[in-house]
Design goal:
The protein is α/β, with parallel strands linked by helices and 447 residues long. The chain has 19 helices and 16 strands. Helix 18 (423-430) crosses helix 19.
Length: 447
């Protein structure tokens, strides 16, 4: 969507010139010829950027800037100045303007200054969103249950060291969120956090992902590639589903943990890096070691500080707070108003077994928000599994993936029913692209 720009100047010629140039660049342009009108339009149209003339007869540009800043929305303001008022423009920047544009205007310069200001604002807002998401993730691991608080306390202590951490728990218990928290609580928090899912990758691909490869190391290796260990130097590498890696890669990972060095695939030079390893698995590694599928010495290297994350069914006292967190998130994303979960629905949720753990809870709340009307989540908004209206196969007997597929199937079927079979309308209600919905319909075998 094109950015909205408000231009403010008491000279019609300047307004025409700016409007023409910015319209040609693809922006949506609004005009104001005095300070009072500028303030009204800033409040009503909420522009993405304001071009503000410094010298105006009714209210000076500095006063307009001051009032815009009082509005609190942080819209970027570029001051327009004559050559003799550049010093005043610098003062304006100290008071909150992001840049200045001198008269007479050069079209290329106008376009460049506006583009850079909008890019800076997008980057700033992106960082704010990322910060909120990271803060939100940390909220997911704090609860009332003794077992979760014990896990958090252990993670905080581990974060202060360089020790390798092994996170154990079922799928959906939040192992990656915990890993990011350990990284965020450590002195490495300003350095890279790199996650690698070890499951499903062939030996050669995983080895290349971890350690990189030299040009010509194998068919298709047309260029040198640095692996995640090298790219994360100074930071943290999270190895998810580490129990599934191939024996050959286990050997190379063991050497790295012992020596803190590795060789790229096809290479002969040892590369040293400073990387903290956090590993996670939902497998029984003790059993894998006894079966001969996992190296015992690697297991001991990974298992320096082990943290067991409890399943949701064993921390039911945390469920209401987690549900509220997801309800706030999905209400905000869908722009719907939900202010809580009614007592009956919460009772059903507390009685349910949650085979998919926190991830399944997020899925159930998202479904309730998409299909519900509010202002509270009611029993009929919950999935059939949570309502207890299942077929002969109970949710507790399903694997996580089977439970998720069953829930997704039900969600799509209900959306299609409410849309009268109109797939485009159902996709819009679910927040999906139509082509994605079509793939899901085919994959899940929905008639």
């Amino acid at each position: 969507m094109a950015s909205k720009i408000l231009i403010v100047d008491d000279e019609p010629f300047n307004l025409d010139l700016l409007e023409q140039e910015l319209t040609d660049q693809g922006y949506l342009v609004e005009r104001a010829n005095n300070g009072g009108e500028a303030l009204k339009k800033t409040e009503s149209i909420q522009p993405d950027l304001v071009l503000l003339d410094h010298m105006m007869p009714d209210i000076s540009g500095l006063e307009v800037l001051k009032e815009i800043r009082k509005m609190g929305d942080g819209v970027p303001v570029i001051m327009i100045t004559a050559h003799g008022t550049v010093d005043l423009a610098v003062q304006a920047m100290k008071k909150g303007a992001c840049d200045f544009l001198p008269k007479p205007f050069e079209p290329d310069h106008i376009a460049l200054v506006v583009k850079k200001a909008l890019e800076r604002e997008r980057l700033k807002r992106g960082m704010e969103i990322l910060s909120e998401e990271v803060g939100g993730r940390y909220r997911l691991i704090v609860g009332k249950s003794a077992r979760m608080n014990e896990a958090v306390e252990t993670a905080r202590k581990a974060a202060a060291s360089k020790a390798t951490v092994l996170l154990l728990g079922e799928s959906g218990t939040g192992k990656e969120i915990f890993a990011r928290a350990v990284h965020g609580w450590s002195d490495r928090k300003g350095e890279p956090f790199v996650a690698i899912n070890c499951v499903g990758l062939a030996k050669e691909l995983l080895e290349s992902e971890l350690f990189g490869h030299e040009k010509g190391a194998f068919t298709g290796a047309h260029d040198l590639k640095r692996g995640k260990m090298e790219l994360a130097n100074g930071g943290t590498v999270f190895l998810d589903e580490v129990g599934d890696i191939a024996p050959e890669v286990q050997t190379k990972l063991l050497r790295f943990l012992q020596e803190r060095e590795f060789e790229r695939v096809g290479g002969t030079r040892a590369i040293q890096v400073d990387v903290r390893i956090i590993a996670a698995t939902n497998r029984d590694l003790d059993g894998r070691v006894k079966e001969g599928a996992f190296r015992e010495d690697l297991y001991y290297r990974l298992n320096v500080i082990a943290i067991k994350l409890p399943p949701l069914r064993e921390r039911k006292e945390d469920m209401p707070a987690l549900a509220r967190f997801f309800l706030e998130r999905y209400s905000r994303e869908t722009k719907k108003h939900f202010d809580g979960i009614d007592q009956e629905a919460e009772g059903k949720m507390l009685d349910y077994g949650w085979p998919g753990n926190v991830r399944e809870l997020a899925n159930v709340i998202e479904r309730s928000v998409v299909l519900g009307r509010g202002p509270k989540v009611a029993v009929h908004d919950l999935s059939p599994q949570v309502r207890g209206e299942q077929s002969k196969t109970s949710a507790e007997s399903l694997s996580y993936h089977a439970a998720m597929d069953a829930s997704r199937r039900e969600l799509i079927v209900e959306a299609l029913a409410r849309a009268g079979g109109n797939r485009a309308a159902a996709a819009k209600a679910l927040g999906l692209h139509r082509t994605h919905l079509m793939r899901l319909i085919k994959t899940l075998g929905i008639d």
